[in-house]
Amino acid sequence: MPSPKIAIVGGGPAGLTLGVLLHRQNIPFTIFELRNKPSAADLARPSGMLDLHPGSGLDAIEACGLADEFGPLTGECSEQFLIANRAGEVLMAADGAGKRPEISRNNLSKLLAAHVPQESIRWGHRLHQAKKTTSGVDLDFGDKGRHNFDLVVGADGAWSKVRALLTDTRPHFTGMHCLTVTITHLTERFPHLAKLVGSGSYCVLGRKHAVVSQRGPLDSARIYLWMTVADEAFATTRGLAGKPASAAKDVLLRDDELLGTFGPTVKDLVATACDEDVATEKTDGSLDIRPFYTLPHGSSWAPQPGVTLVGDAAHLMLPNGEGVNQAMLDALMLSKAVAGAYPVSEASGADNFLDALNPLLQMFEKEMLARAVKEGKETDDRIGLMFGTEDAAYDFVAAMRGMVAKQGEKEEGK
Questions:
Q1: Long-range contact list for 232-240, CB < 8 A, 24+ apart?
Q2: CATH H-level, domain 6-74+102-171+295-387: superfamily
Q3: Residue 374 has pLDDT above 60, yes or no
Q4: How many Å apart are CA 168 and CA 323, to the nearest integer?
Q5: Where are the domains of the chain?
Q6: pLDDT number for residue 410
């Protein structure tokens, strides 16, 4: 009997982590990734930083056997976290002390992909449609062909095509947008800004907006301009769609409803980032501006044999440092379910595999979705603190200090 055929749609952190974990257990699979295979130059560019947490992302790295290789890749952004008011004055400086190391998204992808057999990754495959058939799940990649699988894992992000097999629930607009701009070689070219943003993360809060900086590869600072704007078509309405980042400078800094009331040091950071943006994500050089979407907390689906979801495809939420961690934990837990079913089916074929997998898959989904509800509530609480008032920096600092004090009390009581 042929071995069960497993597809992972999406080659982000969740899909690649699952691939590494299955490969370590000699379970064959195929990853289908939308992007073309990145070059070494592509992977060397700034790509945003991800802090991995004990109990989730770091546990997945350990299970992948990659802890020793992971460590040396985490030096580009420290765990320093500066919180400032909209004048740019630092109200609190915290340090993770090695508990939540930062790694660039590109370095994480490179690390994971290096431990997946290259013949198991199909780059440049855009999924057009996923459809259940009597013989499994049919994946239609247009001119790249159609393929049938016994198990399909949707790791294909916010707008997952695989999700449509399980539920018609779709992401909804949150009333927030993010503009991303990047300055490279910051210390040499703009030492005053390097001093301002520090060696890790710098977060300015006010008027229900945020200016967030993270250090990264090429001595960069990636600046996230997180704007609370109810207009879902904000980029088009304000004439920014398809324009270079420099076009956003006056729109943002001259409007008191946006960043006009922020302090001169913060405005200098934003203006410089807009003028110097290296457009690391947009190949046409246009401004990277995106609305934020989320899935309703508590979203679920009726279990179906041969299909499941992980990461943003399953539980998309606003950025809170947990997205990649929960996605990698999903992959870790799913790999255990698949491995638990695979030995009884390796010689006897796909039907026995699915029969053995179904109860394990249902347990995995139940635990994952319950965890997502908890993380979603915590995300809402944190976002509420960061964006809830005109001068939310003070509320956020008070909450952070309370958390630090509670953690200290807990450690003293051990």
A1: 232/173, 232/291, 234/177, 234/289, 234/291, 235/177, 235/287, 235/289, 240/287, 240/289
A2: FAD/NAD(P)-binding domain (3.50.50.60)
A3: yes
A4: 22
A5: 6-74+102-171+295-387, 172-294
A6: 61
